[in-house]
Design brief:
The complex is a heterodimer. Chain A is of the alpha/beta class. Chain A has 13 helices and five strands. In chain A, a hairpin with a 4-residue loop joins strand 4 and strand 5. Chain A is globular, with a radius of gyration of 23 Å. Chain B is mainly β. Chain B has a single domain (2-282), classed as Lipocalin (Beta Barrel). The longest helix of chain B is centred in the N-terminal third of the chain and has 21 residues, at 2-22. The chains are: A alpha/beta, B mainly beta. At the A-B interface, helix 1, helix 2, strand 4 and helix 6 of A face strand 1, strand 2, strand 7, strand 8 and strand 9 of B.
């Protein structure tokens, strides 16, 4: 009698247990987001911070830095965007399920950012938050980027230097310091394996183009795929990609 | 609240219509064939048509990157729309086999952005629709398994979907996303036919998909960006049928799905929940 009852109970539990524990979506699907957040509304951002965290202590400064970056991005690219971006500032890489304490992700469709916000509040943290917020702004105001070169590069090419020295001067100094180790722009446009140096090199080249001819050509190239970019550059700038790259390297080397 | 009222009204309407189809009140005629009352489980009609209406919720979380075997790194915020759905299905069944065809149309609007602690209403124009069709073959391999009336079956499912979602971003950007999906999946199902008038069916579906996504953004109206990708799905469906006559029944169902797609620069995870009521007629 007890064995029969046990078998019935086991059978009754088996189905729900399988559904809850297994299945494609349980393995591949997104994690749930906990509700342990405090929100701080800003002009263009809603900051979500862990109670009592480093991010909460510095939320006023972070909001000012991000609002300044927001205005800088719109001005440099001459675009309009009125969205309010939700910024989730996690305590650590483990808390955010990200790779390091200086990692982040931008989610344009839901106007959100996930980033680690571990001390200290320095250039690298500000650059990270500015880069991710630029992803959201640029994709929602300019459409889907056609290349990693444009997506990652442009997000770092319009940094504000008002609070921290992360603007164009820093990009050009970095470019000059890399010398022959700089990847060719054609390689960056082609994409493939991508790392932090590729992002900075792309940003430096795009910042140079912005400085030289303004944002209109960049906006026209933003959605183009790799194979179409060099020809459009020649049309828009009147010079070949190789010539533009030579000019850029010479400019940064001065 | 209006939607809830409409849902209840439609449910009552459907119940009334079903009772009319069934003829005399259920108590005045045998609810099931004689062997069903005397034997183990009632047999279903060979051919059954079902029509259902309901309310549903769709959520989407965009994905920035992912690693196989780990949870997808999706946005902490979800775009969530609410709407209505209508479905028509056709079953051809024997006691052990089932062929099912289903067509469903869903409309989604009333969108919000849902964060873990708040929700923000979206532009009134945010919304979309989905048209889907699927075929399923199922075979019940185990009858009266452990419990009288409990049958366990397995099967395969194939389907196609077309979905369109439109989002708006201030000040006046419009982004339209269109998604065409071809999916194949395996099905595990259980039905419980212990009672004379009530049958409960649960199915659990897991599979993969080939996905084509195209995006058009108003800032680049001349360009529609399209990519192929792959995806997955996990569906859970529960349906309870209440037989009013040998041929007619009313039913209520709950459907939940979790899906995802990996497409170049355009990955996302989504889910839907649907509560439906309907009538069935079999012969």
């Amino acid at each position: 009698m007890a064995g029969r009852l046990l078998r019935r109970v086991a059978l009754a539990c088996l189905g729900p247990a399988l559904m809850l524990g297994l299945g494609c979506n349980n393995i591949l699907g997104p994690s749930k987001v906990d509700a342990n957040w405090r929100s701080y509304p800003g002009l263009h951002f809603m900051l979500y911070v862990r109670p009592g965290s480093f991010a909460e202590t510095n939320q006023a400064l972070l909001a000012a830095v991000l609002d300044d970056q927001f205005a800088t991005t719109l001005a440099r690219l001459e675009i309009a965007y009125g969205g309010r971006i939700s910024v989730f500032l996690y305590d650590s890489a483990a808390d955010a399920s990200l790779d390091s304490d200086r990692s982040g992700m931008g989610y344009p469709d839901t106007e959100a950012i996930r980033a680690t916000c571990a001390p200290p509040l320095d250039e690298s943290l500000v650059r990270l938050l500015a880069h991710e917020s630029n992803h959201v702004i640029q994709r929602n105001a300019m459409g889907l980027p056609g290349t990693s070169f444009m997506s990652e590069g442009l997000a770092s090419a319009v940094m504000s230097a008002r609070f921290y020295p992360i603007g164009n001067d820093r990009l050009w100094a970095w470019t000059a310091s890399r010398g022959a180790a700089l990847p060719a722009v054609s390689t960056l446009i082609a994409g493939g394996a991508w790392d932090g140096d590729d992002t900075t090199a792309s940003a430096s080249f795009l910042a140079y183009l912005l400085d030289r001819a303004g944002p209109a050509p960049i906006r026209q190239m933003y959605q183009l795929r790799s194979e179409d970019l060099p020809a459009r550059m020649r049309t828009l700038y009147g010079r070949s990609l190789e010539d533009l790259e030579r000019d850029w390297r010479a400019f940064c080397g001065k | 609240m209006d939607r809830l009222r409409a849902f209840v009204s439609i449910a009552i309407l459907l119940a009334g219509a079903s009772a009319a189809v069934a003829g005399p009140p259920a108590g005045t005629m045998p609810a099931f064939p004689q062997e069903a009352i005397e034997g183990s489980a009632p047999s279903s009609p060979a051919v059954t048509w079902r029509v259902a209406v309901g309310l549903g919720t769709l959520w989407i979380r965009d994905v920035a990157s992912s690693r196989f075997g780990q949870h997808v790194d999706a946005s902490p915020v979800s775009w969530e729309g609410h709407g209505a759905a209508v479905a028509v299905s056709f079953d051809h069944a024997t006691p052990r086999r089932l062929h099912r065809l289903e067509v469903m149309f869903e409309r989604t609007g009333d969108a919000v952005l849902r964060t873990p602690i708040a929700e923000v209403p979206r532009n009134a124009g945010d919304g979309g629709f989905r048209l889907s069709g699927r075929y399923e073959y199922r075979r019940y391999l185990f009858e009266d398994l452990g419990v009288k009336g409990l049958d366990i079956g397995f099967g395969a499912q194939g389907g196609a979907e077309f979905a369109s979602i439109t989002q708006h971003f201030d000040p006046s950007f419009e982004q339209r996303l269109r998604e065409t999906t071809l999916a194949g999946a395996v099905v595990a199902a259980a039905r419980f036919r212990r009672w004379r008038r009530v049958q409960v069916e649960v199915s659990w579906v897991n599979g993969g998909a080939v996905v084509r996504v195209s995006r058009r953004h108003s800032a680049a109206a001349a360009t529609t960006v399209g990519h192929w990708g792959v995806g997955w799905l996990t569906d859970v469906a529960v349906r309870a049928d209440v037989r009013l006559s040998p041929a007619a029944a009313i039913f209520a169902s709950y459907f939940q799905t979790g899906r995802g797609r990996f497409v170049t620069r355009d990955a996302a995870a989504s889910g839907r929940r649907l509560w439906m009521v309907g009538v069935s007629y079999g012969r």
